[in-house]
Amino acid sequence: AKLTLPSVKAEDAGTYICTVTSGLDSSTLDIPTILSVTGVISYFPQAPLSYIALPTLPDAYLQFDIELSFKPEVPDGLILYSSQKEGSNGDFVSFGLSYGYPEFRFDMGSGPALIRASSPIQVGKWHTVRLSRNKKDGYMIVNDQSPYVGQAPGKFQGLDLLTPLYIGAVPDFRNIHKQAGFSQGFVGCISRLVLSGKNVKLNQEAQTSKGITACETCAMNPCLNNGVCQEAYAEQGYSCLCTPGFSGYHCEKIGETCYAGGCGGGRCVNEGASFQCYCPMGTAGAKCEEEIKVLVPSFKDGAYIAYQTPKALRRFITNIKFKTNDLKDSVILYCGQNSDGQGDFVSIAIKDGHVEFRFDTGSGPAILRSERPIRASEWITIKADRSLRDGSLIVNDMPVTKGKSPGTMGGLNLKTSLYIGGWDRQKIKISPGVGVSQPLSGCISNITVSSLNLDLIKSAVDSANVENCDASEGACTSLPCRNGGECIDTGYGPDDYACECPPGFSGIDCERKEDACSSGIACKNEGVCVVITGNEFRCLCPKGWSGKTCEDGTTFGSEASFGGNSYVELDRLMLPHTSSAVPETIAIVFSTTDSNGILFWHGQKPEIDGRGQDYLSIAIVDGFVEFSYELGSGPARIVAPVKVNDGKRHRIVARRTARDGSLEVDSFYNEQGQSGGTLQMMNTRGSIYIGGAPDVPLMTGKIHRHGFRGCIHKLSIQQDNPVDFYNDSLSSVNVTPCTSEGFDVDLKCNSLMDRVSEARRQIFQSCDPGEIQPKRVDANEFINSVSDIIDIITKFDADDVGLSVFVTCHPSEIPLIPADAFCALNCFANSCLSECVRTLLSGAIGCPPLFRQDCSVSLKQSLKALNFAFKACLFEKSVLSLHECKETLDTLDGIVSVRSDPFKTRWVAHTQDRGSAVSPPLQLISLMCPLVSVIKKCLVL
């Protein structure tokens, strides 16, 4: 027989057994062969440069956990480094040795945290160091000593890392952060690197490497009793493959050891002079040889069940029903931030005969103890509730116990599996803050956790040595019926019972609350059902589906409708915020009648509380547009002084460069603002959300509470092409096309353009192209012709779709409507009529210098002058000389910005000079604004 391994890796090392079967009497003979693999562990000689480049440190924005084992040959050198960018600035993390002292540094934009051991480590020895960071706080543990702690200065909490994670050195020490603290690489062996609980195989997972050789960790052959040394990703760079009859780290123990198939389908662990089997759910026995049925789990001798990690940053609620065989101190439930017991945790335990609920959010544990002790062999019901730093505990019918964790930190960061009954001692050390270190001896019949949909048996992701609870007293003794259901024994087996459920509940154990979503079929096409009341529900329909139950197919493009519970998710790289020097521009055209709602949000990931985090937001707040952003040292809030919830189209442009921002609304209002402090870099790790978000209050830190209700007609980011909400999005919820207005766009556009062209022709029909200075203009024709254009636009704007249809059909013609008339009036006011008329009649549209140099100011003045000029000419006489019209416009152009009383005085004085003193009609003042508004929209859209 022959076994061929085409590609040998470190994990292939071990004992291979060749079994020979006799053809005569079917007897078998096992022939063991030990395979060892070399070249596993990396050596960094730095001759002249040695390093390994790994992918960027994953999910390190708010926290990370790194563990590494190494043996240095010199007391100085960089072991680990990653940064935001190459060069001497930006965020970074570094670890290495300085004169033999381990040094851990990180900088999030406000200066570095420096955590340094109090004593040097020995050169030529193996050491294990753990580096942890939670926002601004850092921890370093050297060789299982007490942790060294430190904190970064400033308010900034997010760490942006974009370069590779370099191990051993960097390609060029001139391109690392000036505060990193190192100028040379590490010389020695690195045997083990663990990132957030995941073992990294340096040689296999390297993106690039340079100058790496093999570390001969087995050169001294430390294994006893003929054991074979194997290079391994272990704390000292090797493990021993022991011969039969020996065990231990160096094969120093005599006794039976684990062997292939020794535990059936279970996990074998060498312990002392023998081994122990950890049997999966449904098996039992010394070697997991028995099949059993588990209905109510029973725990003893370290048995446990593990479930997926709960999301408990802000809230954690659990209900547990259990009974204990004795009142010894023991753990009922545990989940922690780290596998070594450091950091945050939540636990429920029996201590001193009482039930204790503990949780630690980073500043020490809250301890809530039941008012009275419990009794053994009785079923106990627990409800434990924690919200930020506040907690409550209810045990059976005892009074509620309340408590609070110390300090100011409120987020509970959990990363390990959720364990009940015990825990995996090969992987997990429970926090000393639990106050208990032994597993439960007893049964657990029910568990619920707020963020998880748990089935006691089926939801298990791992388990060991769990058996079925003794049901000799009848199945109902375990109180299987939930929510007030009545249990009826129907036999003597553990599942011989029936539950009579109270109204509103159903299921075998009355575990299912009946509501509009309980059928599981309320929403079609993978829509998510949300209960509004007991009988009412709402479906969150994924992209491509709409309707009450997501039954209708739909599509949309660069224009989309949002219903208040809708959103579009875009890739964060559409606005990456990679440099504070890069200007950012967001342009949105929208219409709404609601007073509040998010238009654009870029912050953190959906599960992270947005309070205190960086963000960029554009929203409707009390009917006004608000552009706000936070860079870590105080928000900017820029509000335009015009309401936009009138159902008409509005265009906004938000611009930001570092701390400086501006908000432009309808090309008319332009407001400026600036964020507080000195920080200039925005750090956002979540997707971009348009029109809403998965959890608006949580993600925005309650800055906003409502999604947008209305239509977003156009979105451009960084002046790129309009975003296609359907094809460019990562996902969407409850997004539909904007409603159709039901008219022939082309017909209406063509009709409008015909009328505009005719009106433009009539404006100058009395001018003789051959004359340098036309003598007279018929005032009525002039007024009526220009008014015709204004009336067309005004009436068109009264439609539901408004002027936007004109713009959609003829965007190139937008400037021509105001330019012809207002450019001519500017000519009048600046004594250049003949030049302007010649330019217009020659077919080229041009304006005098005043109009071109400062369009926004001169346009505004011209609009006001035009409105007054029409009425003034009509008021005084039907025929004007060009000189008279110019004089009137000159006068009006100088007084349009004057308030009512001075305006009235100057108007009367002007008309007195002409021999007909008249007070200005009120209509003159009131007619000024509508024209400005109409042309403003024309230019905007």
TrEMBL record:
<keyword id="KW-0245">EGF-like domain</keyword>
<dbReference type="GO" id="GO:0048056">
    <property type="term" value="P:R3/R4 cell differentiation"/>
</dbReference>
<keyword id="KW-0732">Signal</keyword>
<dbReference type="Pfam" id="PF00054">
    <property type="entry name" value="Laminin_G_1"/>
</dbReference>
<feature type="domain" description="EGF-like">
    <location>
        <begin position="259"/>
        <end position="289"/>
    </location>
</feature>
<dbReference type="GO" id="GO:0005509">
    <property type="term" value="F:calcium ion binding"/>
</dbReference>
<dbReference type="InterPro" id="IPR050372">
    <property type="entry name" value="Neurexin-related_CASP"/>
</dbReference>
<dbReference type="GO" id="GO:0050769">
    <property type="term" value="P:positive regulation of neurogenesis"/>
</dbReference>
<dbReference type="GO" id="GO:0016318">
    <property type="term" value="P:ommatidial rotation"/>
</dbReference>
<keyword id="KW-1015">Disulfide bond</keyword>
<keyword id="KW-0325">Glycoprotein</keyword>
<feature type="disulfide bond">
    <location>
        <begin position="541"/>
        <end position="550"/>
    </location>
</feature>
<feature type="disulfide bond">
    <location>
        <begin position="242"/>
        <end position="251"/>
    </location>
</feature>
<feature type="disulfide bond">
    <location>
        <begin position="279"/>
        <end position="288"/>
    </location>
</feature>
<feature type="disulfide bond">
    <location>
        <begin position="501"/>
        <end position="510"/>
    </location>
</feature>
<dbReference type="InterPro" id="IPR000742">
    <property type="entry name" value="EGF"/>
</dbReference>
<keyword id="KW-0677">Repeat</keyword>
<feature type="domain" description="Laminin G">
    <location>
        <begin position="41"/>
        <end position="218"/>
    </location>
</feature>
<dbReference type="Pfam" id="PF00008">
    <property type="entry name" value="EGF"/>
</dbReference>
<dbReference type="InterPro" id="IPR013111">
    <property type="entry name" value="EGF_extracell"/>
</dbReference>
<dbReference type="InterPro" id="IPR001791">
    <property type="entry name" value="Laminin_G"/>
</dbReference>
<dbReference type="InterPro" id="IPR013320">
    <property type="entry name" value="ConA-like_dom_sf"/>
</dbReference>
<feature type="domain" description="Laminin G">
    <location>
        <begin position="557"/>
        <end position="738"/>
    </location>
</feature>
<feature type="domain" description="EGF-like">
    <location>
        <begin position="472"/>
        <end position="511"/>
    </location>
</feature>
<dbReference type="InterPro" id="IPR001881">
    <property type="entry name" value="EGF-like_Ca-bd_dom"/>
</dbReference>
<protein>
    <recommendedName>
        <fullName>Basement membrane-specific heparan sulfate proteoglycan core protein</fullName>
    </recommendedName>
</protein>
<feature type="domain" description="EGF-like">
    <location>
        <begin position="216"/>
        <end position="252"/>
    </location>
</feature>
<dbReference type="GO" id="GO:0016020">
    <property type="term" value="C:membrane"/>
</dbReference>
<feature type="domain" description="Ig-like">
    <location>
        <begin position="1"/>
        <end position="36"/>
    </location>
</feature>
<feature type="domain" description="Laminin G">
    <location>
        <begin position="294"/>
        <end position="476"/>
    </location>
</feature>
<feature type="disulfide bond">
    <location>
        <begin position="711"/>
        <end position="738"/>
    </location>
</feature>
<feature type="domain" description="EGF-like">
    <location>
        <begin position="513"/>
        <end position="551"/>
    </location>
</feature>
<dbReference type="Pfam" id="PF07974">
    <property type="entry name" value="EGF_2"/>
</dbReference>
<feature type="disulfide bond">
    <location>
        <begin position="223"/>
        <end position="240"/>
    </location>
</feature>
<dbReference type="InterPro" id="IPR007110">
    <property type="entry name" value="Ig-like_dom"/>
</dbReference>
<dbReference type="InterPro" id="IPR000152">
    <property type="entry name" value="EGF-type_Asp/Asn_hydroxyl_site"/>
</dbReference>
